[in-house]
Specification:
The chain is built from eight helices and 13 strands. It is α/β, with parallel strands linked by helices and 306 residues long. The strands form three sheets. Strands 1, 2, 3, 4, 5, 8, 9, 12 and 13 form a nine-stranded mixed beta sheet that branches. A two-stranded antiparallel sheet has the order 6-7. It has a two-stranded antiparallel sheet with strand order 10-11. The longest helix is centred in the first third of the chain and has 19 residues. Bound molecules: zinc ion.
Length: 306
């Protein structure tokens, strides 16, 4: 049996946040995104801002009933806080996230167990806070990103799926929280070199995404990564319901690329939600085996300094 490549498509639903404030566009985009996926038999992960889920509860309940995954998306500024979660201490983070999670639960009838934090703005308190609140997987990092102005610094964070560390956001740990980072090309830099090219549908065209996917798959095969993942992301701020829309066409092409590239590497491409990836990871990698034990390579220090 061929080894699997899990292919995840996620969308941050945030059309009601103040910078966009277009709930109708959000509804069209989320519906169109689901349509593109379902047309190919796929299901996605919708990370939804409380404002969006309150505006279109029927839509998101329906998407959940159709097999898509719902999780929480948070932009603290949408609820009157500072814009970036990563500037807050643990108590404030817990308060902001709990309020958002409560509003989500009110609409869909269950608490979110997965999350995508806006701007991936986190600090070393965040994973512990998320775990304490009942989150068990999510996208909380963007490896190699260095954007201190957004409190979003993830240089040195793992490229692949892993258990988070309770006290350090860039270490692999043994927290019962599975981090699913977005797929990136660490060598292709943008924004002054402080950000990698990532698999965000709207960032570049399908041709450029092809190279990012192929390179990420090749690396995971070479490094024998236990659970191989391609995670693409987008936002519900584009006209995904319109077949002539460039982003919709890019999304369709990225899906085709993922399946074709998996085949060329001898892998079976399996479309998966975050929950399915987290389950596969838990089955493949026991939590006790990953507790960080750090060691410095001292071979160059010389015998007298051992
Ligand atoms: Zn967002």
């Amino acid at each position: 049996m061929a080894e699997r490549l899990y292919f995840s498509l996620s969308i941050d639903c945030e059309a009601t946040q103040p910078a966009i404030a277009d709930a109708a566009l959000g509804e069209r985009a989320s519906r169109g995104f689901a349509e593109v996926l379902e047309g190919r038999g796929l299901r996605g992960t919708f990370h939804v801002l409380p404002g969006d889920i309150e505006a279109h509860g029927d839509l998101y309940r329906e998407l959940h009933a159709r097999g898509h995954e719902l999780g929480l998306h948070v932009h603290p500024a949408a609820d009157g806080h500072q814009e970036f979660l990563g500037v807050y201490g643990p108590d404030d983070q817990a308060r902001i996230l709990r309020q958002a999670a409560d509003r989500f639960s009110q609409v869909v009838g269950f608490p979110p167990d997965n999350i995508c934090v806006g701007y991936l703005s986190t600090n070393d308190f965040t994973y512990g806070v998320l775990h304490n609140l009942g989150f068990r997987h999510g996208t909380t990092s963007l490896p190699t990103r260095v954007l201190p102005e957004c409190a979003s610094v993830h240089a040195g964070a793992p490229l692949d799926v892993h258990y988070a560390h309770r006290f350090n956001r860039v270490l692999v740990g043994d927290l019962d929280y599975v981090e699913i980072p977005p797929t990136i090309d660490p060598d292709s830099r943008m924004w002054g070199g402080r950000h990698p090219l990532d698999l965000r549908i709207e960032l570049v065209d399908a041709k450029n995404h092809w190279y990012t996917i192929d390179k990420a798959v090749r690396r995971q095969v070479q490094q024998a990564v236990p659970v191989k993942v391609i995670r693409a992301a987008t936002h519900n701020t584009f006209e995904y319901a319109d077949p002539r829309d460039f982003r919709r066409q890019t999304l369709g092409a990225v899906i085709e690329h993922a399946f074709r590239i998996a085949e060329t590497h001898g892998l079976e491409c399996v479309a998966a939600t975050g929950a399915e990836i987290a389950r596969a990871y838990r089955a493949a990698v026991p939590r006790e085996s990953t507790a960080a034990s750090l060691s410095l390579d001292r071979r160059g220090y010389g015998p007298q300094q051992k």
